[in-house]
User: Fold this.
Amino acid sequence: MIKTSGAKAYQKQLERGAEGAKPEELIGFLFTHLIETLAKSRQFIAIKNFEGKANKINLSVDILTALEQSLDHKQGGELASNLQALYQYSIKRLLEAHINNDIKIIEEVMDLMREIQEGWQGILR
Assistant:
């Protein structure tokens, strides 16, 4: 079963590796790392490496949890609520992909996260 308890440990590791980075840059890094991790989980499903798939999906859930926890609902209002719902939906879909070894679901989540990443990159510019 996939667990999300590693999100805090992942955040601490990220903080140590990104000292001096702005919060906006950290979010951008999370999206990049998430998409790379999802791509790797897709590859692991294709070659039937189920342990590798489980590890990468767990990490993807941790990253999505970290993104969700980074939302500022006071300043972000409806946008933050919509992103939270999208992150929760993506976690649910990844759980389904994990159970069913479904590459199409992984690709669905990747496409959603790429759209959010592109929007985020536009904000940073």
